[in-house]
Design a protein that fits this description.
Protein name: Phosphate transporter
Strand order of the largest sheet: 1-2
Subcellular location: Membrane
Shape: globular
Order of helices and strands: HHHHHEHHHHHHEHHHHH
Helix content: over 70%
InterPro entries: Phos_transporter
Strand content: under 5%
Number of helices: 16
Family: Belongs to the inorganic phosphate transporter (PiT) (TC 2.A.20) family.
Distance between the termini: 88 Å
Membrane topology: Multi-pass membrane protein
Structural class: mainly alpha
Number of domains: 1
Radius of gyration: 27 Å
Length: 494
């Protein structure tokens, strides 16, 4: 046999290489697919654990399976609150690059949980702030199905809104759910339409008020600090004042939104606490800002670092207040169901067991860590360009708007305020840029063409339309889903 006969075929190794490449591509594809399933897998595990915890704690009590089902739905709702609502607190700080996304996720998870567990409250108005009177429902069983339908409908809508990239109000979602189930269970007369009218008014009041206040503070910063000859000297004077205003606003905000469950604080007391905290922080930060600003160049970029730390602190405080206030959206109906099953009667206000509060707190944190980055990036980066000064104005507007609204007796949404503040900052920048362009054109005798000015728009209109549409349909959609779920549950248990 010749040497030619002993040689392997020329394409033998080439075929093997092709097969190995195919296997490599298959492994890479499988890895990519499996990575996308990690977050849903962890979320599913948390939901199952919440159900198991409810089963162990309820034991063999009558109706324990209903509580297990409610705990599962409550955990699902908490995950969706974390995925959607928390972005409003952390988005501006991340978008302005005052902190990284990773730090924002950890900080928000810690302070949301602290707010929920420390100041979340042992009593909650379970029937969505008086929307439906408990005695309007036929019996306790129908009340349980109404609460369960409301909770599941709100969670489904929040999940869909997060997938669509629309930050919506969890409070409005659960209110819509209660209205839908209440109408089917007890008729239109069971709904307090006056309260519903106030909630509908907040769709306009919240974002407009938040936008105006955020734009006002940005105007102050630009006028008093940015567009002056000696920027560092102006910053030494005004930044401590602005930090003092922030500290005072947040002290009052936390008193009204976060600590009211621990202490009986009136609006006047909260404002007095805020004034004292604001003056103290103003005095403390004067030497700190002077020391920090030493050696800084006299330019706009240098000023941004002076606002970074106050912005991070404000984001943490917003998360604490949000956890204390909005955890009831996840666990309020669950607490009502647990009380009704255990006591056999319906109450407008009930105590929240610790395990129920823990489900809400942990669910919000897990939802934020697993699914929150999408909405955080949208709120922080995709509506308008933010820097620490602009993001600071957004955070400050959130606290001040809540205080003003409480004083006026107006119901407002923290989600709508924060997003409205971002739009307010963006539209003010557009107006200010247009004004400067016109003035420059007049001085040079060469006005800027209309086409060029249109290209300088600083707010993405498509996001504004998407968010506005989502806000408008939140209550109707969650109400419709809740009504349908209630009908199914009533039919299954008839």
């Amino acid at each position: 046999m010749s040497d030619e006969d002993n040689k392997p075929p020329v394409n033998q190794w080439k075929t093997l290489d092709k097969d190995l490449k195919r296997i490599g591509r298959l492994e890479a594809g499988a890895h990519t697919v499996s990575r996308g399933l990690i977050a849903p897998g962890v979320a599913l595990a948390f939901i199952v654990l919440a159900g198991l915890a409810a089963a162990l704690l309820m034991g063999g009590q009558p109706g324990h399976l209903v509580v297990v089902a409610a705990a599962v739905i409550g955990a699902y709702m908490a995950l969706n609150i974390g995925a959607n609502d928390v972005a409003n607190n952390m988005g501006p700080a991340v978008g302005s690059k005052a902190m990284t996304l990773g730090l924002a996720l950890v900080l928000a998870a810690v302070f949301e949980s602290l707010g929920a567990l420390v100041a979340g409250g042992d009593v909650v108005n379970t029937v969505a702030k008086g929307i439906i009177a408990p005695n309007a429902l036929p019996d306790s069983a129908h009340f349980v199905w109404a609460m369960m339908a409301a909770l599941l409908a709100a969670a489904l809508w929040l999940n869909l809104a997060t997938w669509l990239g629309a930050p919506v109000s969890t409070t409005h979602s659960i209110v819509g759910g209660v209205v839908g189930a209440g109408i089917v269970a007890a008729g239109f007369g069971a709904v307090d339409w006056g309260t519903m009218g106030m909630i509908a008014a907040s769709w306009v009041i919240s974002p407009v008020m938040g936008g105006i206040i955020a734009a006002l503070f940005l105007a102050i910063i630009k006028t008093k600090v940015v567009y002056v000859d000696d920027k560092i000297a102006a910053a030494r004077k005004w930044v401590p004042i602005l930090i003092g205003i922030m500290a005072g606003a947040f002290a009052a905000y936390l008193g009204l939104k976060g600590l009211k469950h621990l202490f009986d604080i009136s609006l006047l007391q909260a404002v007095l606490i805020g004034i004292a905290a604001g003056i103290a922080c103003w005095l403390v930060t004067i030497p700190l800002i002077r020391r920090q600003s030493e050696g800084m160049e006299n330019r706009k970029k240098s000023l941004k670092s002076l606002f970074s730390l106050p912005l991070i602190v404000s984001a943490a405080l917003l998360s604490f207040a949000h956890g204390a206030n909005d955890v009831a959206n996840a666990v309020g109906p669950l607490a009502a169901i647990v009380h009704t099953i255990e006591q056999g009667d319906v109450a407008s206000q009930v105590g929240i067991p610790f395990w129920v509060m823990a489900v809400g707190a942990l669910g919000i944190s897990f939802g934020l860590l697993l699914f929150g980055p999408k909405l955080i990036r949208l709120v922080g980066n995709e509506i308008t360009k933010l820097n620490p000064m602009r993001a600071y104005c957004v955070a400050l507007s959130a606290a001040i708007t809540v205080i003003v609204a409480s004083w006026l007796g107006l119901p407002v949404s923290s989600t709508h305020i924060a997003v409205g503040g971002i739009f307010g900052v963006g539209f003010y920048r557009e107006w200010h840029s247009e004004k400067r362009a016109r003035e420059l054109g007049i001085r040079k005798g060469k006005p800027v063409p209309v086409e060029e000015r249109k290209r300088r728009l600083l707010v993405r209109r498509s996001h504004m339309l998407t968010v506005a549409a989502a806000w408008i349909i939140t209550v109707p959609v969650s109400a419709g889903l809740s009504a349908l779920i209630y009908v199914v549950l009533d039919w299954l248990t008839a």
